């Protein structure tokens, strides 16, 4: 009965899930809906066709669950193993194809998530070994139980060895690779100033954008201040030039008064307006500025 339930679960959820992953029916329907109602330009079409990246929060737990089922029920119900092996074979082919040819890689973490996966694999091994000990006790095979009790201890010891041996490489960059990278950088770009490069190398892009905007505002303000200062200097120099060279003398000129008649027949009134005073400038050449 237990084998029947888990076999059905693996076939319905596992095999069908792998087929759905290679067909990608849900993203296909979503793309056509976006193409009908939301796509207005070529850029919108590219965004609608974006496949995204692998859904790690959903994919990794399901794979670890099937691994746990296979390793736990390998002794209890061995008939479950062929279905588990078929699932992992199909999953390897499908996800390899999807990661290489379909999905877009959003970031490169350097396998930083592998220590978490490794710890869960070790936990699955310990659970399967403890269940094996319980099964042998129920089957009246207590004589072999002391020999199997060392298995969880060896597994946990192997886990500690892996943590001390390999986990620092995931947490910190290895010195050998860092040295090779520094040598390559010095060879390809010998004139790079590392002090200025490392000043904002680890700054988050959102904060870098804010700093660029502030620097741009400072540059604009500086340009405005320079323009105002240059304009003030020009005005001051022009004023000093006006004070240094006196304006030429001007004499008021008057025009003859004009008689304006009120329109009517016969003319009854005549208005005599005195013309406003006009100024005529008489330029005299200065002694040092005469032109030949």
UniProtKB/TrEMBL annotation:
InterPro entries per UniProt: Csc1-like, CSC1/OSCA1-like_7TM
Protein name: CSC1/OSCA1-like 7TM region domain-containing protein
GO molecular function: calcium-activated cation channel activity
Keywords recorded for this protein, A-Z: Membrane, Transmembrane, Transmembrane helix
Region (Disordered): 226-268
Organism (species): Gossypium mustelinum
Coiled-coil zones: none
Membrane-crossing segments per the record: 65-95
Domain of life: Eukaryota
GO cellular component term of the entry, any: plasma membrane
Record carries keyword Nucleotidyltransferase: no
Domain CSC1/OSCA1-like 7TM region: 2-136
């Amino acid at each position: 009965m237990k084998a029947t339930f888990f076999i059905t679960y693996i076939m319905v959820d596992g095999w069908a899930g792998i087929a759905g992953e290679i067909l990608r029916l849900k993203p296909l329907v979503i793309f056509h809906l976006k193409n009908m109602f939301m796509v207005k330009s070529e850029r919108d079409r590219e965004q609608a066709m974006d496949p995204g990246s692998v859904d790690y929060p959903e994919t990794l737990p399901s794979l670890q669950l099937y691994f746990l089922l296979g390793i736990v029920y390998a002794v209890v119900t061995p008939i479950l193993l062929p279905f588990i092996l078929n699932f992992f074979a199909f999953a390897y082919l499908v996800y390899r194809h999807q990661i290489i040819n379909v999905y877009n890689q959003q970031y490169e973490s350097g396998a930083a998530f592998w220590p978490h996966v490794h710890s869960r694999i070790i936990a699955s091994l310990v659970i399967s070994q403890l269940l094996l000990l319980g099964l042998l006790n129920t089957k009246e095979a207590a004589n072999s139980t002391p020999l199997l009790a060392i298995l969880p201890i060896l597994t946990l010891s192997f886990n500690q060895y892996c943590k001390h041996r390999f986990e620092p490489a995931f947490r910190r960059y290895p010195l050998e690779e860092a040295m090779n990278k520094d040598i390559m950088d010095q060879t390809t770009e010998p004139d790079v100033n590392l002090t200025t490069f490392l000043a904002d190398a680890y700054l988050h892009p959102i904060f870098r954008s804010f700093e660029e905007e502030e620097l741009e505002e400072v540059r604009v303000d500086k340009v405005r201040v320079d323009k105002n200062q240059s304009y003030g200097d020009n005005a001051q120099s022009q004023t000093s030039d006006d004070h240094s060279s006196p304006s030429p003398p001007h004499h008021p000129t008057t025009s003859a008064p004009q008689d304006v008649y009120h329109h009517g027949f016969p003319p009854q009134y005549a208005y005599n307006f005195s013309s406003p005073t006009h100024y005529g400038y008489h330029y005299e050449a200065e002694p040092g500025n005469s032109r030949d």
